[in-house]
Specification:
The protein is of the alpha+beta class. It has a single domain, classed as Muramoyl-pentapeptide Carboxypeptidase, domain 2, CATH 3.30.1380. The chain has 3 helices and 5 strands, in the order H-E-H-E-H-E-E-E. It has a 5-stranded mixed β-sheet with strand order 1-2-4-3-5.
Length: 117
């Protein structure tokens, strides 16, 4: 484990099944900017996923998680829609879900809404 930014360490991005740590530092720096903007705790619910773990959790074939360029996050006390609105101008991929926000740095714009409300 190593400290990556003021509020994030490498372990937070590790695969939940094998513990491998893969991340794009540019993506982590953008997450720190988001954290500084909201001034609230950011929890990474899913960071890097090895191919096995990605399949197990139902990740899509071209998921950014196995590349280390994606995170699913929750910001304490902030609705996922508000997080997504901020992210629109800061992240390449923004996915809206009921309880979390998917953010990625894939190199091109992608947007989707998987909310059920």
């Amino acid at each position: 484990m190593s400290k990556l930014t003021k509020n994030f360490d490498s372990k937070e991005f590790a695969c939940k099944c094998c513990g491998e740590e893969v991340f794009l530092i540019f993506h982590v720096l953008k997450l720190q900017t988001l954290r500084d903007y909201f001034k609230k705790k950011v929890t990474i619910t899913s960071g890097y996923r090895c191919e096995q773990h990605n399949k197990k959790v139902g990740g899509v074939e071209y998921s950014q998680h196995p590349l280390g360029t994606a995170t699913d996050i929750e910001v304490k006390g902030v609705k996922p829609d508000s997080v997504a609105e901020y992210a629109e101008n800061h992240f390449d991929g923004v996915g809206r879900y009921d309880t979390f926000t998917h953010l990625d740095s894939r190199g091109y714009k992608a947007r989707w809404d998987n909310t059920t409300k």
